[in-house]
Amino acid sequence: MADALESATTTAMPVLRVQICHALPDEAFIETLSVPAGATIAQALAASGLHARFPALAATLEAGDTKVGIFGKVKPLDTMLRDGDRIEIYRPLQADPKESRRRRAKHKQQLDAR
Predict the structure, then answer these.
(1) Distance, CA of 18 to CA of 84 (rounded, Å)
(2) For the chain, which residues make up each domain, given as ranges?
(3) Strands (DSSP E) along the chain, which ranges?
């Protein structure tokens, strides 16, 4: 009996729990899933069902046009995951942050001059 238990625990592959997050203007996709140890970002995305729900996103991910990351740091799709990682899919910026800051500063300057 002890041999069977020992054999079962040594052959069992460690499992990692990760979360996939994709925020859109009108909805959010958040999925927590278990993946085998050694899984990559690409494998977790494929297992999440994200490709079926957002086919256009799947195409841009495969083409490398959409960036992904873990906890706010951009990572390649072949990055190996660790337990507790949150995989984030980033949307392109709608405006250049520096240009937006310049417009706000100019607008504030005009208001202060009145």
Answers:
(1) 5
(2) 13-113
(3) 15-23, 28-36, 68-70, 73-75, 86-89
CA 67 to each of CA 56, 76, 91: distance values in angstroms, whole numbers, following the listed order: 14, 8, 8
**For position 11, what pLDDT does the model report?**
57
Token pair listed for 42: 């690409």
Residues of the chain with pLDDT under 70: 1-12
Cα 4 to chain center, whole Å?
Answer: 39
CA angle 35, 36, 37 (to 5 degrees): 120
Predicted pLDDT of residue 45: 92
User: What's 13-113's CATH class?
Assistant: alpha beta
The first and second tokens of residue 32, run together, are 């927590």
